[in-house]
Design goal:
The chain is α/β, with parallel strands linked by helices. It has a single domain, classed as Rossmann fold, CATH 3.40.50. It is built from 6 helices and 13 strands. The strands form 3 sheets. Strands 1, 4, 5, 6, 7, 8, 9, 10 and 11 form a 9-stranded mixed sheet that branches. A two-stranded antiparallel sheet has the order 2-3. Strand 2 and strand 3 form a beta hairpin. It is globular and about 60 Å long.
Length: about 210
């Protein structure tokens, strides 16, 4: 399973600000929005392009444009929403699917509650977006569902990953590329990433954590 840790200084600086417990809800949201396109930039390096003739103010040339079906971004609700809006600003032509999952507090298993996708997933590069890859249960459930819907080329973007989650995804979907800003040490007894940043959804939306 290819894993890309995006260690660009700007990404790491913003991630450090995101991690701080004193970072306010508004600041947290803004920082997550800022870092989203940076992560997407790395994940889309291999998108296919095609040459088309255009005319500049000075002369004609063959210029590269994105080729094929539009990119599909799939935020895992609810925390994935904090990243996806700014990603769409970077790639306005992208389609957006939504996948609702929550983690059962007792079993820690992922529970589906919503799914709405664009057509022709099999012809699109599908990028799953979720700030945290902790146990990996939600990510694997999301990837399973997308495979069932016909997606072939799938990538996963997360702010933070735990070794346990990476191992889980690798076992179930070894071909999926993962892009993350950091791989943290471990999970605690409640399956939170350590040192982590707390609950991303709660910090994004100002709910209790």
């Amino acid at each position: 399973m290819p894993i890309k840790v995006i260690d660009h200084p700007l990404v790491q600086h913003k991630l450090s600000l995101i991690r701080r417990k004193e970072t306010s809800t508004n600041e947290f949201r803004m920082l997550v929005r800022e870092v989203g396109p940076m992560l997407l930039y790395e994940a889309t390096r291999d998108l296919p392009t095609t040459l088309r003739e255009i005319e500049t103010p000075l002369e004609r040339m063959s210029a590269p444009f994105l080729a094929g079906k539009k990119l599909c971004l799939v935020p895992i609700l609810r925390a994935g929403l904090g990243l996806v809006d700014s990603m769409v600003c970077a790639v306005p032509s992208a389609r957006v699917g939504h996948l609702g999952l929550y983690r059962d507090p007792t079993s820690l298993e992922a529970v589906h509650y919503f799914c709405k996708m664009p057509d022709d997933l099999g012809a699109r590069c599908v990028i799953v977006v979720d700030p945290m890859l902790a146990t990996g249960n939600s990510a694997v459930a999301a990837l399973n569902r997308l495979r069932e819907l016909g997606a072939h080329q799938i990538k996963l973007i997360c702010l933070l990953a735990a070794p346990e989650g990476l191992k889980q995804v690798e076992a179930a979907h070894p071909q999926v590329e993962i892009f993350t800003a950091a791989i943290d040490a471990s999970l605690n007894d409640h399956a939170y990433i350590l040192p982590g940043l707390g609950d991303a959804g709660d910090r994004l939306f100002g709910t209790k954590y």
